[in-house]
């Protein structure tokens, strides 16, 4: 070790370690998935290595275009709602005492420890007709009969937001808490109203963090396949549900792999667009 | 293959707590594969010790994964002349796929006199007439209702199509595990023959699509539907007869009905990998399992329907009713999910659950 003189404390070859891990656990599985997606599906068995685009061709249909549209709109809505709630929440949180902040963050982190199954079952009970919140509304005289709010698109988005919200807060919290309060004070001194200062000063200066939180929740919810089954109607089933069906129940791995790659490409394209858009507006401002 | 999910359904899983880890490998042990979870644990506890005592053959119990993964593993291993299990319990679609690729060893009927107890649909043969498998366990999928929401039990599958049941029904989400095509064909098209052609399948799907406004949940998870059925949230649907009976016996307001058209009889079968070196012992095991008293024991201890005719067993009326019915069952057309699996699956996604 002493033979090489390095300016940093860590030797350079240490960088090979994450590189090798990335190779081993990301690129290699991805390459296998690519290879499987063009393999030949054998209906009476499994698949045989080969090169054919049948699985991709099968995906090119009105039906799967619809499923893809459902997936994207569900995840985009969930991401938008999460960020819309998480941003003001985080700004508010950052103004509280350190003790309260720590407490709230710990509670939020603990939500991440819950599995999707637990969240799905809890929400389906909460929104049910027999034991759910409909009974409370009925008791309050708001509705004539207790009713069920699940399975529905509303229930599904609620579930996804429940999972996505802590992530959004955790991404937003560091930049929000570092935001210099004097910037806002300066705006107020210059005569800006509260809302004006919020939307004109705080939001633009944290645009990067907001876009980051949006992208994280979007990508994260895009892969959800349990909640759509537990909380959604069959027309709300996302592409991830169909991928699971093909891989687990139909043992059609080529088709499942092809759909996964499609989903990934579309997600990457949207993420690219979002970050580009964020940067452009930033440059223009 | 859904049967291993039984594990999740509470009380039925209570038995597994006592799972013994005996019967471990010896060089001479016969490796027997069953669905991991409830089935494997039940067999470990109730079947293998007695079999070893009766035959002198040790058993190594193997837990099979769900889906068709086990078929694939057996196929790959057989190419290398290995048998991860000698005898396996296979779901019918996977069994037929193995039969098509001649993965199963040919069995010698003269050494298995008890196999004659089984009805024809549990005797599986190659085209040349040689035996390659026998029925192992079977169970019914019936019409279930919540007794508080439905004071009277429905008598026909037609209840699914009744507009009075809008948004009240829970059905299984896949063509190949719900067997709703067979149910629809038997209820409205005089039997399952119509499913022999693609036009016929589409005709049946068109009829089945009429239930969509009544379906609140297309379920994959047994626990989710059972809970909804017990609370009355989703007061009607299709479910397993044995588990429903168990829930009812624990005071839950649910009932299982064998409709006039018959309930669906699903099953798993015993097959032997052609790579197995223990064909003789495997045949002793399969023969042992085809005895009426062993089938009766499975009905009592595991909750499966006997694969042999009822009058061969000593099951009481009550015991028999807990697992089966004298009504003619609807037998799934497993072949169509092998021959046209992808096509049916795609049509199903678009026309039924889509």
TrEMBL record, chain A:
<feature type="transmembrane region" description="Helical">
    <location>
        <begin position="59"/>
        <end position="91"/>
    </location>
</feature>
<keyword id="KW-1003">Cell membrane</keyword>
<feature type="transmembrane region" description="Helical">
    <location>
        <begin position="255"/>
        <end position="277"/>
    </location>
</feature>
<keyword id="KW-1133">Transmembrane helix</keyword>
<feature type="transmembrane region" description="Helical">
    <location>
        <begin position="148"/>
        <end position="176"/>
    </location>
</feature>
<keyword id="KW-0472">Membrane</keyword>
<feature type="transmembrane region" description="Helical">
    <location>
        <begin position="103"/>
        <end position="128"/>
    </location>
</feature>
<feature type="domain" description="ABC transmembrane type-1">
    <location>
        <begin position="68"/>
        <end position="274"/>
    </location>
</feature>
<feature type="transmembrane region" description="Helical">
    <location>
        <begin position="197"/>
        <end position="227"/>
    </location>
</feature>
<dbReference type="Pfam" id="PF00528">
    <property type="entry name" value="BPD_transp_1"/>
</dbReference>
<comment type="similarity">
    <text>Belongs to the binding-protein-dependent transport system permease family. CysTW subfamily.</text>
</comment>
<dbReference type="InterPro" id="IPR000515">
    <property type="entry name" value="MetI-like"/>
</dbReference>
<keyword id="KW-0813">Transport</keyword>
<dbReference type="GO" id="GO:0005886">
    <property type="term" value="C:plasma membrane"/>
</dbReference>
<keyword id="KW-0812">Transmembrane</keyword>
<dbReference type="InterPro" id="IPR035906">
    <property type="entry name" value="MetI-like_sf"/>
</dbReference>
<dbReference type="GO" id="GO:0055085">
    <property type="term" value="P:transmembrane transport"/>
</dbReference>
<feature type="transmembrane region" description="Helical">
    <location>
        <begin position="16"/>
        <end position="39"/>
    </location>
</feature>
<protein>
    <submittedName>
        <fullName>ABC transporter permease</fullName>
    </submittedName>
</protein>
Automatic annotation (TrEMBL), chain B:
<dbReference type="GO" id="GO:0030975">
    <property type="term" value="F:thiamine binding"/>
</dbReference>
<protein>
    <submittedName>
        <fullName>Extracellular solute-binding protein</fullName>
    </submittedName>
</protein>
<dbReference type="InterPro" id="IPR006059">
    <property type="entry name" value="SBP"/>
</dbReference>
<keyword id="KW-0732">Signal</keyword>
<dbReference type="GO" id="GO:0030288">
    <property type="term" value="C:outer membrane-bounded periplasmic space"/>
</dbReference>
<dbReference type="Pfam" id="PF13416">
    <property type="entry name" value="SBP_bac_8"/>
</dbReference>
<dbReference type="GO" id="GO:0030976">
    <property type="term" value="F:thiamine pyrophosphate binding"/>
</dbReference>
<dbReference type="GO" id="GO:0015888">
    <property type="term" value="P:thiamine transport"/>
</dbReference>
């Amino acid at each position: 070790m002493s033979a090489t003189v390095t300016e940093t404390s860590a030797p350079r070859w240490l960088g090979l370690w994450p590189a090798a891990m990335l190779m081993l656990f990301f690129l290699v599985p991805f390459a296998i998935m690519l290879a499987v997606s063009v393999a030949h599906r054998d209906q009476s068995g499994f698949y045989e290595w080969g090169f054919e685009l049948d699985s991709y061709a099968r995906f090119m249909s009105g039906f799967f275009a619809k499923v893809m549209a459902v997936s994207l709109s569900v995840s985009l809505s969930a991401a938008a709602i999460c960020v819309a709630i998480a941003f003001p929440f985080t700004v508010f949180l950052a103004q509280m005492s350190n003790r309260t902040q720590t407490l709230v963050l710990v509670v939020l982190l603990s939500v991440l420890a819950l599995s999707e199954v637990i969240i799905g079952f809890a929400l389906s009970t909460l929104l049910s007709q027999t034991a759910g919140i409909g009974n409370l509304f009925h008791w309050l005289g708001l509705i004539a009969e207790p009713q069920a709010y699940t399975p529905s698109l509303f229930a599904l988005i609620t579930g996804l937001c429940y999972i996505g919200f802590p992530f959004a807060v955790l991404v937003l919290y560091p930049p929000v808490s570092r935001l210099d309060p004097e910037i806002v004070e300066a705006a107020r001194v210059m005569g800006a109203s509260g809302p004006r200062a919020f939307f004109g000063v705080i939001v633009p200066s944290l645009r990067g963090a907001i876009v980051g939180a949006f992208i994280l929740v979007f990508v994260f919810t895009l892969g959800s396949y349990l909640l759509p089954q537990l909380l959604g109607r069959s027309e709300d089933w996302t592409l991830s549900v169909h991928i699971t069906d093909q891989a687990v129940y139909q043992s059609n791995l080529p088709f499942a792999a092809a759909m996964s790659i499609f989903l990934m490409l579309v997600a990457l394209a949207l993420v690219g667009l979002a970050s580009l858009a964020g940067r452009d507006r930033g440059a223009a401002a | 293959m859904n049967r291993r999910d039984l594990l999740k359904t509470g009380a039925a899983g209570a038995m597994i707590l006592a799972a013994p880890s005996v019967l471990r490998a010896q060089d001479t042990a016969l490796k027997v594969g069953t669905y991991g979870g409830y089935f494997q644990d039940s067999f470990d506890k109730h079947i293998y010790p007695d079999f070893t005592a009766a035959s002198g053959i040790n058993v190594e119990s193997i837990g099979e994964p769900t889906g068709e993964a086990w078929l694939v593993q057996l196929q790959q291993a057989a190419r290398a002349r290995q048998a991860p299990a000698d005898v396996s319990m296979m779901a019918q679609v996977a069994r037929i796929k193995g039969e098509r690729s001649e993965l199963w060893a040919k069995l010698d009927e003269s050494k298995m006199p008890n196999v004659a107890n089984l009805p024809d649909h549990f005797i599986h043969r190659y085209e040349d007439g040689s035996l390659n498998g026998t029925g192992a366990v079977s169970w019914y999928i019936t019409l279930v209702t919540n007794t508080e929401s439905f004071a009277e039990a429905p008598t026909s599958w037609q209840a699914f199509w009744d507009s009075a049941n809008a948004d009240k029904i829970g059905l299984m989400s896949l063509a190949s595990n719900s067997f709703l095509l067979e149910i629809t064909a038997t209820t409205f098209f005089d039997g399952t023959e119509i499913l022999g052609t693609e036009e016929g399948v589409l005709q049946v799907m068109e009829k089945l699509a009429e239930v969509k406004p009544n379906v609140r949940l297309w379920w994959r998870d047994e626990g989710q539907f059972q809970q909804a059925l017990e609370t009355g949230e989703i007061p009607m649907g299709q479910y397993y007869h044995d588990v429903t009976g168990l829930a009812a016996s624990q005071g839950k307001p649910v009932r299982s009905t064998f409709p006039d058209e018959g309930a669906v009889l699903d099953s798993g079968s015993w097959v032997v990998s052609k790579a197995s070196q223990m064909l003789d012992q495997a045949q002793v095991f399969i023969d042992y399992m085809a005895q009426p008293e062993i089938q009766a024991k499975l009905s009592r201890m595991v909750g499966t329907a006997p694969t042999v005719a009822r009058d061969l067993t000593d099951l009481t009326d009550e015991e028999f009713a807990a697992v089966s019915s004298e009504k003619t069952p609807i037998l799934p057309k497993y072949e169509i999910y092998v021959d046209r699996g992808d096509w049916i699956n795609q049509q199903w996604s678009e026309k039924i659950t889509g």
